[in-house]
Design a protein that fits this description.
By secondary structure, the protein is mostly beta strands. It is built from one helix and nine strands. The mean pLDDT is about 85.
Length: about 180
Amino acid sequence: EYEVGINYLNQLNTNLGLAYRFVDSSFPNRLGIIKNILGDASTQKQIILTAAWLPTAKTRLSTRFAQVSLDRKNSTIDSFSGFNQRWGLDYALTGKINLSFAAYKELTPVDDVVSTFVETKGVSISPVWNLTSKVLLNAGLRYDKQNFIGSAGLTIDNKDRLDEIKEASLGSVSYTHLR
């Protein structure tokens, strides 16, 4: 796996970036008919565009767009491509409390009997409290809908699977060692 790219940052902290990401995956545990249908390896490539803007001293808006393609090796399943996107808003409530909001749609491969990739649409909110300059207290709420699409061809009734994920996390503590 590797990612290469360039970023431009101006004096007002507006950031523009362009990157290329390459991930080579292998699935050595797939055997028999599963290996013949789903393949034993894949290559994922992404072209990524990022942007961030600080409209005020307390607010940061960001976005990430990516064109994703997944090429399956030794498989009877079609490869796929699509677009990922993520939007973010970071806001400093006080000098010690920050809020992050995100909305996203991501397409990723999955090793599943019914599906070959999953489309995740979701939103999240993550407050962070800076207890000290080295210690952070993190929390979060997340809601995702995962649509398992891309027929694996292994069942007669290939209805898409739709999962909902509701997650709340409280009390994660981070420590940063500063010299």
